Amino acid sequence: MRDTGYHDEDDHDTNYNFDFPNFVAVIPDWPSPSAQQFAENYCKQALQNSSMSAFCAEQGNVDIFSTLSQCVEDIKLTGDPDWASSALNTMEQQCSSAVLANVSMFEENENGTLTPPQAFVQKLCLNQCSFKGICADGECICNDGWIGKDCGVVADTAPVVWDLKRGGLCDIRQRPCEKVNVFGKNLLKSENLTCRVAEASFQNGQWTKSGISFQTSASFESFTEIACYLPPPKVQPNRYHLPGDGTPSYGLYISISNEGVYFSDELLLIIYDSVCQNCVEDSACSLKDGSCLIRGYCFQDQDSNPDDWCQQCLSSTNTSEWSRREVNQPPSILSSGNITKVQSDSFTVMIAGHDPEGRPMSFSASQNLPHGLSLSPDGFLTWISHGPDTFAMDIILTDQCGAQDVQAFTFSTIPCPCNNNGVCVPSPGMPIGEGHYDCLCQPGFTGPRCDINTNECQSSPCQNNGTCIDLVNSFICNCPVGFIGEYCATFDECSLNPCFPGVQCQSTNAGHACGDCPPGYHGDGMTCTQLPSSCNNKYHQMKNSGELATDGIYMIDVDGQATPVYCDMSRDGGGWTLIVTSKSMAGWDKGNVLSYNEGTPTTDADYSILGKADRIKISGASTNVVQVM
Ligand SMILES: [Ca+2]
Ligand SMILES: [Ca+2]
């Protein structure tokens, strides 16, 4: 199977334009009267031999005499009796068209379908069997010595060839050169149609077969044209990168055979690369001016070495080897040589470069870079925060062919311009490495450089005429008398002096809380009353204030401590302080006899404040301080 992508077709050729004004048709005379007589006899004989002519004459739809005169005229013009078939074919085509157009002549077959008349169909034979056979049921039966579908080929003879298409030259730049058409005669549409190919090289002034012959497939194009399929061409311009040498041009001897036995003469096909080869039929190919032939591959002047752009074909210098590229512009570094940052910053900046020819480039530094600075070959320069503060070096940009640009670079560190511990951050949208920084301020500061203390009193946060004092990221309210709280929002109940004089007042969300009453006083802090020092004192206080003193528990002051005691206010004039009650013998011991159940004075159960008796007695202002029941 052939590759369907094959395009070695005629449409690759430029059209040939006839030069009409200079074209003059020449109609020849008969060379002799006998030649005219021969032609007339030949054409009559051809008409008689034609299986169709009698049938068509009967139908009356063709002019047999006109066909005869056209036949004679063709032979006169060409001088070749083979042209008799042209007039006969024309006549038969007219006859066929007329018969096939006249449905009334059609016959019904066994399937009931109308078909052209059998008498007509049986007389249709290719090329009138070349007058070398008879037509039977549409097939030629050839005379002895003639073969082929139209009996047009002499049996057991080789085809005769006279030319290859395009003069036997195939330029690999124009077409794939995988096919060549051979012109000739005695060509047979045979299953065994074969081409034979043998490589040739130009030696000792002529093309000589240099390889073995082998057969390739062929296709029948017409009775005068055969297409031969060729092995893959050795001229392959795009394989320079592969090992081994290439082939700029070579020859192929081509011959054809109808049946694979009798081969025609050989015709030479030259396949070549027109980039560096001048080839003409049958001569050696020569090197074109302005080209190079390197390792067997063709290159034009200025062409680059596919493996190394820095080399090119300079035919004026060397046509067989690469020359160093004539013109190579150096690249240039486009970035500024000053790179600046604050100490704390780290960044990667791309150094821009340009090569006029757009060839690959690489960046390098003129010296070893200190820790913290790095430069990649594609121009990415990284400088990290703990790198050097200042540094200077040359940066070199080298193109593929070694041409260079050198630029001095200085790296410098600037102080961070942010005040009050503001943090430097790169300014968004600004080029990196040019010292553009914004400040990220600590809370409480603002301004481009964080030098403005934000006024937190701006919103007048203090209520009730409190005075706001601005601090860093905060404020204090100095509250007027009567108000407390962060915002002076709470009324200060203590300002109304709700507590007993000398008792501490504590403002709370719920109101206020008073502290303990002073020593010698008893109460909740708001109200404190001075305690008597004995029941006797209490008796007289009550008596003096007109109160009725009854027996019961009262608070008295013992050594500055409020202490509950039982006072007998009725017996023997009243004002007796109960010291001991003993109802049982159990429970008493040496340890508790001085103070037994002293918090719960009672006359009904065991109780003792003997340990305090002396002090109560001393403080008692008058008599009857101790009663033991
Ligand atoms: Ca360059
Ligand atoms: Ca502030």
From TrEMBL:
Signal peptide: none annotated. Its main location: secreted. It is found in: Secreted, Extracellular space, Extracellular matrix. Residues 526-579 form the Fibrinogen C-terminal domain. Gene3D superfamilies: Gamma Fibrinogen, chain A, domain 1, Immunoglobulins, Laminin. Pfam families: EGF (PF00008), EGF_Teneurin (PF23106), He_PIG (PF05345), Vwde (PF26129). GO terms for molecular function: calcium ion binding. Disulfide bonds join 441-450, 479-488. Residues 412-451, 453-489, 490-529 form the EGF-like domain. This is von Willebrand factor D and EGF domain-containing protein-like.
